[in-house]
Amino acid sequence: MSSVNMRLHSGAIANLTSTFTQPDHRMGIELLGRGFRIEVSGRTLTYVTADDTKTISSDEDFYKAQDQAFIEAVRQGDQTLVKASYQEGVDTLAVTLAANQSFQTGKMILI
Description:
Number of helices: 2
Radius of gyration: 17 Å
Low-confidence stretches: none
Distance between the termini: 23 Å
Number of strands: 6
Strand content: 25-35%
Shape: globular
Strand order of the largest sheet: 3-4-5-6
Helix content: 25-40%
């Protein structure tokens, strides 16, 4: 299990938690904001406010689609085939490496 707490440049607080304890490999993301919640669970997205709840489901395996788009982008040398820029990938790697360094040193890492 891992847990990372972050203060973003905007001042927002983020927490990322990861574990491999579920036998069905359940995965999901939950985003909480002032007056709303967005949850992605498997192939379902749910948006909740005080007044409404909307749910969208998909039959597409979006992880497979992302992998295929990335492979095609590399094959063709065309970054536009993926939704995130290479810079966003580099930024994500920086956060991951900082989390690893924080775990190893027990100290907060600024990036």
